[in-house]
């Protein structure tokens, strides 16, 4: 990064590990400062009774560790009068703050790093952040349990590394460049089938990401609709708190921190897996079994006993899968469907097989992501019966896998009704396997064999020549590119008909002394090509030996072109009887002005 300081010309750039440590120090102080300032504003307005500034700083440390995922001991954070429980219900909305700060640091470290050096400052920065977290926990806790200290040092690294890698990828646009791997070189070593499989797998991952994003958006819409419908109940809970302006502000900020959790709860509720707000409670699509709920305003948005109307929420996960299936078809990387269509010729059978396979893959990936989201959004308040809050991660993942997978398969099949089916054309592009002998010889390098495509071209050329009224004499063609050649001679025999009307057959079958020097050299080049191929080094793909083609072209007896306009008899020495003269005549470029008619 360019510096405009007058002393930058005399400064020495920091090493990468030091820059990573400095960036994470800044990130930690900014995120902790945000939590401390928020609690300080509440404390200045007498929001905490009999709490000094030292106790407020320890409470800030505990809350700062909580938003990083470290469990909060209520008695250590709020004093001996608080319940002796462990709070694990993480406000993910506040956890976004350190993640975004780490995202910024990751971008800066990516700019300062060369290819393959990104994880040097990341490792140093993560170690620095871990030491800061452990030191903060040791300062704020009265009991120095080694396991708790280790948890405080390691758990925050999940959010830190996620933000750093996200920022580095956003800046580098390639995970391979961050690691230092040449992706193009690795892909060039793969076969075409491996490339197709990789393209299909990457398209499945992106389709699953589309399903996850659509699922989260649907959960947010459900939460918004539930808040609007139950707004009166939420306002009544606010009024029953009697917290005043400062208390209402603190409660509102706390609810904003739990909005991502509530969105994920709405996602789990839409799948039918249910929610828990305390031991022995369950919130389902049609019926809900709840006990005394905490006086938290957002709890008033919980739907209760909706009946058959509640099953309409199933459209959220199914619709997310439908969008993923539609996107996957538009991506054009459905190579599994192409393979199935080649194996199963009946399209009515191959299409469901490929669509179900896609639905299973997208469903498994989306279910895995749902398990992580459900685990992060659930937890315990550590007090009373509220030890189980949120969805059941395993149940949530299973229901999501089924519904999203079914929606993906349906979306992929239905969307094909609006596009033309090209499965019938796949057989034209299918690779034809050569014979076993050809594959063995090609593998061990024994001899040179003509491929089927070349044989097909030769047969088509021979049939075309046999249909002509005035056939040309067969020539010796040198297929140097494919290692084969024909068995006919390049010069006509004495029994052949005269090629032109002006030359007798005897002259065409003249002795070797009468053959021009150029023709003798061409014949020698052809004889060289008939010999056994010598051991030559392997060439690169698509590298063509043009010299062999030139030698083959010179051995072909070319029928002279009649110049009817000039009234010539087809003499080969005539300037208009060569192929180049014919091309010049077509293009209007005449070298001999005497034969040009005005």
Protein described:
This protein has 24 helices and 8 strands. The chain is mainly α. The protein folds into 4 domains: 16-183, no CATH class; 199-423, no CATH class; 476-557, no CATH class; 558-598, no CATH class. The model is unreliable at 432-436, 442-456, 466-573 and 590-598 (pLDDT under 50).
Secondary structure layout:
Blueprint: H1 16-44, H2 53-66, E1 72-73, H3 74-78, E2 86-87, H4 92-112, H5 119-140, H6 146-154, H7 157-172, H8 175-179, H9 183-188, H10 192-229, H11 231-241, H12 244-257, H13 259-271, E3 276-277, E4 282-283, E5 288-289, H14 315-331, H15 335-343, H16 347-377, E6 389-390, H17 393-415, H18 426-429, H19 436-444, H20 452-466, E7 478-479, E8 484-485, H21 505-508, H22 517-530, H23 546-554, H24 579-587
Antiparallel strand pairs: 1-2, 3-6, 4-5, 7-8
Helix pairs in contact: 1-2, 1-4, 1-5, 2-5, 4-7, 5-6, 5-7, 10-13, 10-14, 10-16, 13-16, 14-17, 15-16, 16-17, 22-23
Low-confidence stretches: 432-436, 442-456, 466-573, 590-598
Q: Number of DSSP helices?
A: 24
Number of strands: 8
- What summary fits the major beta sheet? 2 strands, antiparallel
Rounded to the nearest angstrom, the radius of gyration is 39 Å
Strand order of the largest sheet: 1-2
The shape, in one word, is: flat
Number of separate domains: 4
Protein name: Membrane protein
Biased composition (Basic residues): 587-598
Pfam families: DUF6350
Transmembrane segments: 21-43, 86-106, 118-140, 147-169, 200-229, 308-329, 349-376, 396-419
A few lines on this structure:
Helices cover 58% and strands 3% of the residues. It has 24 helices and 8 strands.
